[in-house]
Specification:
There is one protein chain. With about 260 residues, the chain is mostly beta strands. It is about 0% helix and about 65% strand. It contains no helices and 19 strands. The chain has strands spanning about 5, 10-15, 20-25, 25-30, 35-45, 50-70, 70-75, 80, 90-100, 100-110, 125-150, 155-180, 185, 195-200, 200-215, 220-230, 235, 240, 245-255. The strands form 4 sheets. Strands 5, 6, 7, 11, 12, 15, 16 and 19 form an 8-stranded antiparallel beta sheet that branches. The model is unreliable at about 1-10 (pLDDT under 50).
Length: about 260
């Protein structure tokens, strides 16, 4: 489940008057479920019996489902002068959600259920929003390798930096709920996040430790647990973007020239 936190300072956006609007920002921390699949092609060179270097390209597809819970005071809603189609007052609650791929703006429209049942300016409006986030990356590792053992079975340890380039980044909102009984969600199935600042290129690290078995002089098979992550990054407005940490197992076939 995703937890969210507001940074120290909100960002400013133009308002209807001379005073800019203060837009809260939330940062996605943890995801309820993550499914990932990676395909890679790696080339390497031995420096000596123990040491070597490797580089290549990897394609990674990640699907993340999460629920975040932004909170507002009612006074933070931006009223519509025309009201809703039902003739009741409605308000936009705007915020930015910082994700791995960048900062997305979200606008949730709330409608006052009973015009005669006033909502106090300081009354809390707590939202529960479920999202589906799909990210496709092209990863470029550069690793130093260390080889242990002799004969057909050898141990390999690899470590190095990794460039992570975002090919596509899609954030969809699946449901919106509120615990405020005086308001209801007007556009729950129509909320469309818009990425204002996409972070295409980020840097991270990659580490593996596994076994390689040589079938003959040219061919070998390998399996290795792998850990990879992302270094911290900020938007142009100095807002924190969450990182990514993945743990899994790689398996493959090597051809030795």
């Amino acid at each position: 489940e995703t937890s969210v936190k507001a940074p120290e300072k909100p960002i400013e956006r133009p308002g209807p008057g001379p005073v800019p609007r203060q837009i809260p920002v939330f940062v996605s921390d943890k995801h309820r479920s993550v499914r990932s699949l990676e395909w890679s092609g790696i080339a390497g060179r031995k420096i000596n019996r123990h040491w070597g270097i490797e580089t290549g390209l990897a394609y990674l597809s990640i699907e993340q489902e999460a629920t975040h819970r932004p909170s507002f005071q009612f006074k933070h809603g931006n009223p519509h002068s025309s009201g809703s189609p039902h003739g009741r007052p409605n308000f936009d609650f705007d915020y930015n959600l910082n994700t791995y791929g960048g900062s997305a703006s979200v606008s949730v429209q709330m409608e006052q259920i009973d015009r005669n049942n006033a909502v106090a300016p300081t009354e809390m409006v707590n939202l529960s929003i479920t999202t589906q986030h799909t990210t496709r990356l092209l990863k470029m590792p550069l690793m130093v390798t260390y080889r242990l053992g002799r004969g057909r079975l050898q141990a390999l340890v690899k470590l190095g930096p990794e460039g992570q380039y975002t090919l596509s980044n899609r954030l969809e909102i699946e449901s919106v709920e509120t615990d405020n009984k005086k308001l209801e969600v007007e556009n729950g199935d129509k909320v469309q996040p818009v990425f204002e600042q996409e972070q295409r290129l980020r840097w991270g690290y990659r580490a593996t430790a596994g076994l390689q078995y040589s079938v003959n002089k040219q061919w070998s098979i390998m399996t290795e647990p792998v850990l990879s992550g992302t270094f911290s990054a900020n938007t142009s407005e100095k807002q924190t973007l969450p990182g990514m940490f993945l743990a899994g197992v790689n398996a493959g076939i090597n051809y030795h020239f």
